[in-house]
Specification:
binds magnesium ion, binds adenosine-5'-triphosphate, alpha/beta, 9 helices, 243 residues, 4-stranded antiparallel sheet, 12 strands, Rossmann fold
């Protein structure tokens, strides 16, 4: 689904990612952990094709095609979708209109909103004045409408109340086709950033990665990694990198 080779990324003249390698197979979900400011969001925005994030070295392949220089709208059409850590608000654009425009599924906008506990927001301007948790549900509703093959979630549970974390976890599992077994035709893959690890209870991730200061320092079993980070902090990951 996705191959990242020796990816170096510069933002505003400063190199933030220093040679990332990662490979995500069809049907797999990977999780990224890492301290604030490590470059996690930068990686997702680069994969999505935001122009501010300049690839100075390396390649990104999606579904076998080199997309390193492919524009963002083309990546979205090819099946990439993301939920932002801090989604933009757009005054004058009704939420239901964007959902209709991007909808790639048979069920209605109202059904999508119902799934995301989002019915009361359809007539409001997109993300305008939404609370932290409402923003996250807005992002999930848009992904349900878009139905991408490669799903990137940037801290989907941050700022979300306990009941809605459950809802977001369930939507993530639907998007990632977790009801299908890996070897029985699951077509969706994902890359999810989490600090709290709560999303791990819902999506049964295949691999975890730790990103520190723009370097991928460790890859392994996501649950074991998260437990170690909780117990020993990121210092443990730096040791892993040294070995
Ligand atoms: N547009 C930008 N202009 C200047 N610096 C930027 C820009 N985008 C990212 N950076 C810098 O790049 C570094 C990595 O930022 P990034 O948002 O990718 O971190 P992160 O790992 O997602 O952190 P967090 O866990 O806090 O969300 C930070 O030092 C940040 O200030
Ligand atoms: Mg971030």
């Amino acid at each position: 689904m996705l191959v990242i080779e020796n990816l170096h990324v510069e933002v505003e003249g400063k190199e933030v990612l220093h040679g990332i390698n990662m490979s995500i197979l069809k049907g797999e979900t990977h999780v990224i952990f890492g301290k604030n400011g490590s470059g996690k969001t930068t990686l997702l925005l680069t994969l999505m094709g935001f122009e501010k994030y300049k690839v100075t070295q390396g390649k990104i392949y999606f579904k076998g095609k080199d997309i390193t220089n492919v524009p963002m709208y083309e990546r979205a059409r090819m099946g990439m979708g993301m939920a932002f850590q801090r989604p933009p608000a757009i005054k004058g654009l009704k939420t239901k209109d964007i959902l209709k425009k991007i909808k790639n599924v048979d069920f209605s906008v109202e059904d999508i909103a119902k799934k995301a506990n989002f019915e009361n927001f359809l007539d409001r301007d997109l993300n305008w004045g939404f609370s932290g948790g409402e923003l996250k549900r807005s992002e999930m509703a848009q992904l349900l409408a878009q139905n991408p093959d490669f799903i990137m979630l940037d801290e989907p549970e941050s700022g979300v109340d306990v009941e809605n974390i459950k809802l977001i976890g369930k939507i993530a599992a639907i998007l990632l086709e977790k009801h299908k077994r890996l070897k029985e035709g699951r077509n969706k893959s994902g890359l999810i950033i989490t600090h709290t690890g709560l999303i791990l209870d819902y999506i049964d991730a295949d691999k975890g990665h730790v990103l520190l200061d723009g370097y991928l320092v460790c890859t392994g079993n996501p649950r074991e990694m998260f437990k170690l980070i909780q117990e020993e902090g990121y210092e443990r990951c730096i040791k892993c990198m040294m070995n």
